[in-house]
Amino acid sequence: MAKLLRTLLLAAAAGLCAAGAQAQFVSSPTVISSPTAALPGLSLGVSVPMDHGPWVLGEVLFFSSGKMVSDYTWRDRVRGTRGALYTKADISSDVESLMNLGRFDKVVPNLFEIPGTPVPAEFATIAASTSQVRLVFSVVEKAVAASSTTARRALAPAPVSGVIMTPTAYRGAGKFDSPGLGLDFTAMYVIGRLYGRNNFLNAPTRTNYLDRVGVWLLTADGKMQIQSEGPVRPAVAVGGQGTFMFRDSPQPNVNDPNPTLKVNASQKSTKLFSDAYVAVSKKFGPARTTVGLMEGNMGDSVANFTEFLTPDALRFFAGQNGQTVRSRTMPFASVMFMPKPQYPLAIEYIQFNGAALHPIMINLKMGYFLHLNFDVGIVKFNGGYDVLGLLQFRYNQFPNK
């Protein structure tokens, strides 16, 4: 197997070198019609002329320097998805979009039939090929000029597999639209309350601001995407989350306006939360939208973000003696934009069904404006609301390339 793989890679490199001398590479956004010039040494299927279309896309691949490349930024410039009807004009538009990245000297698109993948029945009389096609872009990246200073490394794109506290149906590392397994690790830190209002008659004050919360939530998020996104159908994933919560300061007491702060992750101040979820995601233009449902005790976590949801506050302020904030069903929704790949802009909504005072949480991902991981959360409950400052980091463990 290793010998065969080495032979294929050498053939690919030789093919690209030969193509460089003989083929007409695209240096401007114009689609060429020589379908096998870019990658003559690789077995990618039966070549398809690009003079006539449309075709049904089965796969999109990128090759650079004889190697297959999976780059989220490149793939996001291609509008086509699996099962979509594609024309020569669409391919030309993709080439233009790729060239506008400013990272390539040349781009060559090619089409190849994928054996054993007939086109859907609704496209049988329209498509120029009876089989789905593989769209292959062979790119020549611009050389980085040597200098005395170290070149700045491009930041990796932000994950689209989740927002702050809620997941999406996508996976990471450019494979967000292919079914399979995914694993993320996240760290969320609730710094404190920026501003809050309440109308409880017995509350010490009606307005609160700049109060410490100091809650960490360390989460493992595992999912399986069971359906990829198509022109009409959404992506669907099922998964589960496990969260370890601890405090670096005690939760403020409602009777103590100046609580003492100390660093102590004691057994009493640590908790374990978990949930299972289903998420449905669909991209509409620049917006990646998600709706879903979480089931588990993760809904209890909201009580740790504000002292007005503690058992004492429920008893003294809301008149609900013996009640606790407890939720096992959490509908959620989110919308994510990527104005820059490294800095997403998103909003998510979580409803904690069945919990005392009916809390909801709205989180705003604002990294695009601040170039930081600083976010804002709003906890709304019957009787008031708190605006929280958050820090959140998400890391794609799998897939990571």
User: Which oligomeric state applies?
Assistant: single chain
Q: How many helical stretches?
A: 5
Radius of gyration: 26 Å
Please bin the fraction of helical residues: 10-25%
* Nearest-integer average pLDDT: 80
Low-confidence stretches: 1-5, 7-38, 146-153, 256-267
How does this model look, in words?
Strand 2 (55-64) and strand 3 (67-69) form a beta hairpin. The chain is built from 5 helices and 17 strands. It has 401 residues and is mainly beta. Strands 7-9-10-11-12-13-14-15-16-17 form a 10-stranded antiparallel beta barrel. It folds into 2 domains: 2-141, Roll (Ubiquitin-like (UB roll)), CATH 3.10.20; 180-398. 36% of the residues are buried. It is 12% helix and 42% strand.
Could you name the key traits of this structure?
401 residues; mainly beta; Ubiquitin-like (UB roll); 2 domains; 6-stranded mixed β-sheet; 5 helices; 42% strand; disordered N terminus
